[in-house]
Each structure stands twice: as structure tokens, then as C-alpha cells.
Amino acid sequence: MKIWYKTNFFKRASGNALTAEVEFPGESPWFDGHFPQDPVLPGIAQLGVVHDLLRWAFGKELVIREISRIRFKRKISPSNRVALAVTPGGASQGTYRFKMTCAGEPVCHGMLKVEQKKGERLNGA
Known about the structure:
Blueprint: E1 6-12, E2 18-23, H1 43-58, E3 62-72, E4 81-88, E5 95-102, E6 105-116
Antiparallel strand pairs: 1-2, 2-4, 3-6, 4-5, 5-6
């Protein structure tokens, strides 16, 4: 079984702030066919990691309702370690700002709005 990515650590701080470090092994299916001579992690994979982190933190199945202000600044290559920070943000409940960095350099940032799969609002968001 192939590993999509590895979570090296995960922390939930006060105010629902989340931090994690993730690594994308070279054999990750995300890299299959995505520029074989110069593998790069697709943007959708980066958003998927943010979504996974929120699901783990709340222990609930969440769906993404809105994606905004996404900026991709640098590519993520196989075996890169990426630091991820997610904080509540925005005017509406369930909106989170996220920022990914690699070796201290910005990789991507933006906002995700999530809600529970059955359409219920998140508590504590």
C-alpha cells in the first residue's frame, strides 16, 4: 500500500489553532504522472492535507464549502517536509486561514470554509 503523505507531528493549540508537519514520500500516488522528470505536488493535494488536518482536529467528517485567496508560491517536491498552520479566520463560522512553509519559505496560503457533512455548523469554530 502506498502512503499519500506522512504526518510527523500534529498539535492543537488554544483558540482552535492547528499546526502540523507533513512529508510527501517520493512513492506517494500524488506524484504519479505529475511531471515525471520533475515531480511536483499538485495544489489539490495541498488543499487535501489542510482538509484532513481539520477533520482530525474536530473528529468529524467535514466537507469543503468554499476555497478563497489561494496563492501557490513554491513547488513541493518528493520528500519535502512542510509545516502547516491553520487558524480560525474570516467573518463566518467554519472559515480557516492556512499557511504552508517548506524550509521557512512560503509554499501556499489561503482560506477554506468547511462544515459538517450533514450541513450542521461546526461547534467552537
